[in-house]
Every structure is written in C-alpha cells, then in structure tokens.
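Predict structure. Chain length: 751.
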Amino acid sequence: MSKTTDRQAPDLDFNSPALLRHRKIRRAKDKAATAGIAIGGSSVILAVLLICFYLLYEVVPLFAGAEIEAEAVYSLPYEEAGASHYLTVEEQNEVAMRVAQNGSIIFFNNLNGQVIKQVESTIAADMTAFAIEDDTSRIMALAYDNGQLIIAQHNYKISYPDGKRKITPVVVYPFGEQAIDAADFPIQQVAIRNGEEALTLVVMGESQSRIVKLEKDVNFITEEVELTETQAALPFINNATSLLISGDQRYLYIATKTGAMTELDLRDIDDIKVKAQHQLTEEGSELTSMSYLLGQSSIMVSDSEGKVSQWFNVRDEDNVENLTFIRDVSQPVGIIDVAMEQRRKGFATLDTRGVVAVYNATSSRQVINEKLSDETATNIAFSPRANGLLLEDGQGIRFFKIDNEHPEVSWGSLWAEIWYEGYQEPTYTWQSSAANNDFEPKYSLMPLAFGTLKAAFYAMVMAVPLAICGAIYTAYFMAPGLRRKVKPVIELMEALPTVILGFLAGLFFAPFLEENLAAAFSILMVLPLGILLFAYIWSRLPNQIRWLLPDGWQPIILIPVIIFLGWFCVAMSPVIELNFFAGDMRGWITNDLGITFDQRNALVVGFAMGFAVIPTIFSITEDAIFSVPKALTQGSLALGATYWQTMVRVVLPTASPGIFSAIMIGMGRAVGETMIVLMATGNTPIMDFNIFEGMRTLAANLAVEVPESEVDSSHYRILFLAAFVLFLFTFVVNTIAETVRQHLRKKYGSL
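Prediction complete.
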C-alpha cells in the first residue's frame, strides 16, 4: 500500500527586496523611455516648425507695403529763375539740382534748400526747350529761341576733408562749351540720345523740324573724340508735344496732345521715312507725358484720364519690330508728371490731386498711393537709389524718404505669365541676373516648380515599376537564401552619394546615351520580350534540367541573359540608326520631328534619379509584402488559389498601405533631389515636357543661386520662398500619403 504525502507549495513573496528593486528600475526605465520619446518627437516637430517659421520670416517682407515719410520742406531755391524744367537729387540725397525756366542750373542742399552752386546760361537768348537723355547718364540738352542748344552734364565729386564727406556738384560739357547751331528757327521741342558711335539730336519748331547727328571718331594720335556733324530735315508733325529717340537711335517717336504717335525710321538720315502710326491714348483723353523706362526699351505714356501705359517693340513672324501695347495702370484723375526709377523698372505718378503713386512696371504692383501735396504740385523725381522722392509744388520743394525694398514681387510676377521686354509674348521665365544694370528681373517660380515635377515624374516612371516588381518577387517568390543576399545589396545602393551618381550621369551616361539613342529605346522593347521568351523556353525544358536549379533561384540565370541583350542592343545601335534614321537618330529627332534635343535631358535624369530612388521604394515595399501574415497566404493557397491569385488578391491589398508609403517617400526623395538634377541636366529653367530637354528644379536652383544672392535682396528672399514652396509641397504629399495609407489600412486591415 503506497503512502501519499501532501506537500504544500511554498508561499511566493512578490514584495521581496529584489523584486521591488526590479520593479522600481523598470518603472524608471519606462518613464525615461516615455520622456525620451516624447522629448525626441516634440523636438523633431519643433525643429520642423522652426524651419517653417524661419522661411516665413524671410519671405513675408516680400509682400510688405512700402512706406513714404516727409523729410524736408523749403521754398524754391533761387525762385526768381522760375519754375523747374527738371528736378533731381544725387545718390546720397544731400545735393539736389533743378534746371530753371531761364536756363539756370541750380544746385542746393536737399534738406534745407540752401543754394550751393548756380550755373547761368552762356547764350544770350531765352531757353525754350529742355530734354535729358535719362537720369543715369545725366546728359541734358538746353535749347533756345535762336536755334542754338547746349549739351551739359551734371556730376558730383566726393571728397573727405577732415574725414567728413563733401559732395561738390559740377557741370561739364562733354561735347564742348560751344553752342550747337541746330536750327535756323526758334526751338520748341528737343530730344537727345547719346551712344558709343554717335549723338543724335532732334529739334522742332513751329512749322519745321530737323535732326542733328554728331558722329564720333577717335583720333588715334591725340585720343580725342572728334565730332562730324550731319543735319537733315524731318517730316513735320503738327501739334507735337513729345519727342523721344530710341535707345539704339534707330527710331524717333513724335506724339501729339491727342495721343497720336508717328514713328520715324532714322537709320538712313538721307531718307527718313514714316515707319508706323500709333494711337497711344483712348478717345477723349490727352497725352501728358512720354518717357523711357530704365533700359530704354519700354515707353511709358501717361494721359489726362489717369492711365499710364507701357509700350515696347515686339518682333512679329517676319522679324519686324512693331511698337506694341503691353499693360497699363490707372489713377482716378489725370496725370501731371511721371518719374522713372534709375536702377529698377519702377515709376511714380503725380496726379492733379497731388497724390503720388509708385508702381513697378513688370509686376504692375502699386506699392504707394498717398496725397503728398495740394493741387499745385508740378514735378516729381526719384533719387538714384529710389529711397527718396523730390516734389515741387506752390510752396517750394518737398523731400520724402521712401522704404520700398521689393516692388518687383507680386503673386502675378511669381506665378502668372508676364510679358517681359524683348519677348514676343507673355511667358513664364526665371532669370535672376544679367550683365548690365538695365536688366528686367524675371522671378517666375513656375518653371522651377514645373522642372521639379518633371524630374520627379520621369524618375518615378523608371523607379516605381522596377522597384515594386522587384520587391514583389524578392519577398514572395524568391528563395530565402537568395533573398538574404539580394535585399542587402539593393539597400546598399541607397548609400551611394548622389553627387557621384550625378557626376557619372552628366559626364559618362549622358554622352553615351546621346551616341546610342537607338540602343536605349530598343532595350526598352527587347529586354522585356527577351526575358519573357527565355522564361517560356525555360518552362519547356525537361524537368531533369529545370530541377538542377532549386526553386526560387531562377533569377540567377537571368543575369547573363540581361547582359547579353543589353550588349546586343548597343552593338546593333549603329545598324538601327543607319537603316531607319539615316545614320543619326538625334538629327532625325531634331530635324524631322522638330523636337529639341539637349545632351543632358530628362531621360538622363530619369535613369540616374530613378536608380537613386529604387532602393528606397524597394526596401519599404519588400518589407511590407514580406510582413503579410503567412496564415493569410497559406489559407488562400489551401482554398485552391494559385500563387499569382494569392499575390494579387490577398498579399498586395494587405501590403498596399506600405507600398503606397514607399511610393510617396520615393517621390519625396525625387522632389528634393539636388545634385543629380544639378549635374545631369542642362539646368535651364524652361517649361517643356519634352523628354529630350532639361529642366531646373527648385532644389537645384537653391543650390546654384543662394550662395551668389545678395542678403535681404528680392532675389535672396524669393529663393527662400522657393524653399518654402518645396517645404509645402513635401508637407502636402506626406499628408496625402498618410491619409491614403490610413484609408487602405482600415479597408484591408480585416483580411
């Protein structure tokens, strides 16, 4: 008889010192991990927000309004000389100048009106007309009722006696102090234009007009400029009120008070003809002024109805220049005077109410519209830096300080088509700098945004099919042993520096592709067909041969097939070009199809940037597919589905959130890529979806131009705006991706 002994289990002490210490340490670790994760996540969010706020901090001043502030008011200097024909101030806003009605040139202190220097006319006659070439050259023509005129130029010498700046105004006579006998009649209108080879003067009297051309020749012995004078009669235009000579001295524009303009061709002084007739103002309005904008390309016309219109020459299909209306701005009442900025495409208007409005011609943006005087105002003038404004009225002279940093920027100039000087039609153009000061900045972000999307599109066209199909096969069909070798190798591709990829694409692949265009396109057809043909042949081989290769290792034997097919296409490229494209496929594309071809183009970017994006999409997609629970696939197979049916109807829907995330992350990588598009494209900001032309992306533009831009300039801040646009684009793409991913996860999460 057996004896059973009841044993009582020992009591467990869950509050022993060791367990208490263990729980305490674990709680501390949990709290530390929670705090660390919270701090890290919050820091990332804070960093992103700080980047966003900093970009906004740099961008917001672009759209801030301008300010104008009264600085000084004083009576008209040397008032007995009469009102002013012309008013200006030098660059430091310290010395101003006016040309009075009697021909006196008066320099005075810009802050108190004290006369500094006075230059009297040397001709014993009344001054009847005045003209200045432009505020930059400062060359003036003073015409008199005896038919003579004097050409003068006002300059300013800066010295620093006792360490203090001293500005000394001077009047020089670049063509001699001797008066020019321009006509044998009292001059009522005069125009002047100086060039490197000649000086052209046009004078008009009560019933006749003449042109005086002074050809310049340099004496090689004395190195002095010798002038050869030629005069000729001009077709007379009745009631002419404005004369203007084009910057290249080819055309003369004569406008009447009714706004009718006659355009004369001055290229042959012995046979001057009427080139065209134009109507500058609307019916019922009178022309008040006509002058050139900076650069001497655009004519600004103001009228009594308050409208200021811009005109410049546009070439037609026959390459003939025609003066064309471009755009206009308007005030509610008539314009008295218009002043042009000396270093930007800006201008100011003075109307009959004494209201001054400041505009930018390119953007048509009004930045100032304030009443600065009463109805007696007559003249306005900008300082050279456009940071000051002189106004003459019944009380004398008023000087205003202006803060107007970014008038050329508006939503229209950034995103809409703009008709720029010298262009045949409105365009989207990015051109931020040029070789001369007369340049019209072109800050359209559309070509850059378009180039960004174009580069990303072609990269994704190449990367998405290859990466996703490769990930599907690797995760679902490939043997585990081979997968463990292939996946790390593809992921290692992501470590390749993009600057190396861009270097190879630009210097090696682009020329190679240009020389083997036929091979590139034949590969796209031959390679898939060749792989399918080989797969068909392989499936028809005897089992004894196919079983020599373990299941899932078949991609190994495709490697030599792909290499052979690639070599075959390259070898056959000259033969294809010779038989189908007259030996030159690039020439056939350019000449026969009329498609522009650049060596560094979107096709090169598609291959190079697609190669860089493939590892990102492949890795995430492969992980998503491989993470699908095996029970789902096994259940599908057990119910009779094939491997392909299981993949299409079970695995892919379940992994779709991860696959979509992979595509979006790859797209984000392509959008933000810099070095590949910088080195593998022509880096030209054009809007053309042509695969054989290049582009410039937002990221590449930032890399190129930020180091060269002037801090706080419009160009500098617009580059920050481009960065903000790129930031917003990435944010929108990620938001859409997360929304779609959550929707897919909810839809297929029950599988």
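Summary: The chain has a mean pLDDT of 88.
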